[in-house]
Amino acid sequence: MSTYTNLFKNKIVVLATFIGAALLLFSPSTNRIFLSDDYCTLNNIVANKSVWLETFFRPVGDLTLLWTYTLAGWDPFYFYLV
Questions:
Q1: What is the pTM of this model?
Q2: Is residue 17 located within the same domain as residue 37?
Q3: How many domains does the structure of the chain reveal?
Q4: What is the mean pLDDT of residues 30-58?
């Protein structure tokens, strides 16, 4: 095999190892409830039907919360996956 193929396989193994370790380490948190700041932000997004809040705006975080809520509703499991 070429050096390029071996390097690519090594990178895939490292990536799979990190993903597996992350899933193993964070799997206990998937059955938890919302944290206070997440709940307040999500509640504002749902109540106002908009991510544009005058007081506090985190564009990437708020959009992620909105999209996850749109796809999964109020189930905290999916929010912890993201």
A1: 0.54
A2: no
A3: 2
A4: 71
Distance of CA 24 to the CA centre of its chain: 15
Asked if 79 contacts 68 with a C-beta cutoff of 8 angstroms, the reply is: yes
User: For 51-74, what is each residue's pLDDT tens digit?
Assistant: 776 666 777 888 888 888 889 888
Alpha-carbon torsion angle 71, 75, 78, 82, nearest 10:
90
- 17 with 41, same domain: the answer is no
Task: Judge if 45 and 10 occupy the same domain.
Answer: no
Provide the domain limits for residue 14: 1-31
| Residue 13: per-residue pLDDT | 92
- Of the candidates 82, 71, 79, the one whose C-alpha atom is nearest the C-alpha of residue 39 is 79
